[in-house]
Amino acid sequence: MIYINGRFLLQEQTGVNRFAYELCKALHQSGIFFILLCPHGEIKMCYDTAGFSIKHCGWGKSHIWEQLFLPIFFLKTRGKHLLVNFTGIGPIALKNKIMTIHDLGFMVNSKWYSLSYILLYKTLTPLSAATSLKILTVSEFSKNEIMRLLNVKKDKISVIYNAVSSLFMEPDTNYQYSEKKEKYILAVSSIDPRKNFATLLKAFSMLKDTDIKLYIAGGQNRIYSISVEELSANISSEKIKWLGRVSDAELKRYYEGASCFVYPSLYEGFGIPPLEAMACGVPVVVSDIPPIREVCGDTALYVDPLNQKDIAEKIALIINDRELQEELRTKGRARCQAFGWTQSARTLSAVIAELQDRFCMH
């Protein structure tokens, strides 16, 4: 029997939680039966769980549920079962499990995270990796990071790429969104230090185009104490719009109305927003870092994320060059076809089947 750690269903949707949700949908659509295990509580509205088999066990949304109640559940359950963890760390006490490591940012730069977060993940991640049958990750870059920093053998790691939700792939021929009348640059991410909004705002203030605005969509990161107001203190409130969390339908409309999309992240495992932007036909400016190169290929303008002048110049270049805009739009839409949740679910299914055969988990 396949069980999936469904703790994410009680949390707001993030890039990591989207990975979990979209893979669950794709596995379900491909006819693979699984049971989602999650704590007692209210499932967030952003997840459509119609058709999913869900079993509630234990209480709490924290790692305590994962490390305590999940192992207790399996102690009471007969037979050999496989637990798939798409988010979090996964219960260390269980050996019949797959864990997912999206990135190892907490081992790369401690300034990006709270002390409690660093201590938790630096302690538990290596332990869970050691006791897992398989480790999933979202890029070849992250695979190499796991091998380098956690000393995990290559054949224990499988790359399952992120992809774009089908909503973003559908052209909106009746698009009449009011924001289309306003010229703006769009950035999408949680307000997180490694997303590099401080440098983006400095770059934006250097633009000579006085008519353009900056829209930022994404929720406040609970481990990052600085507020959006503090970040934008030196920029006119008329020039910047903090959208907060928005639905996928709203986000698609913001993408479609943007003059360009900017993603100056300092560190990623993958980075879904640039793909979403390209799927919506928006030219993108992204950080010149290995995982983003792996995702975007030759379909974006690359910048040094620490160089505000470079970011400003590349934004201006896209805004003022219609031929370049069209070239990037065409390349971007084509690039998105290389990533799909169906393909990723197929790769994951093969990983699961191999483990079931090897350890007789049918």
Describe the structure.
It is built from 14 helices and 13 strands. With 362 residues, the chain is α/β, with parallel strands linked by helices. α1 (15-29) crosses α14 (341-359), α7 packs across α12 and α10 (272-279) packs across α13 (322-336). The longest helix is centred in the C-terminal third of the chain and has 19 residues, at 341-359. The mean pLDDT is 91.
Précis, in short:
One of its GO terms (molecular function) is glycosyltransferase activity. By secondary structure, the protein is α/β, with parallel strands linked by helices.
Properties at a glance:
362 residues; Rossmann fold; alpha/beta; elongated; 14% strand; 13 strands; Glyco_trans_4-like_N; six-stranded parallel β-sheet; seven-stranded parallel β-sheet
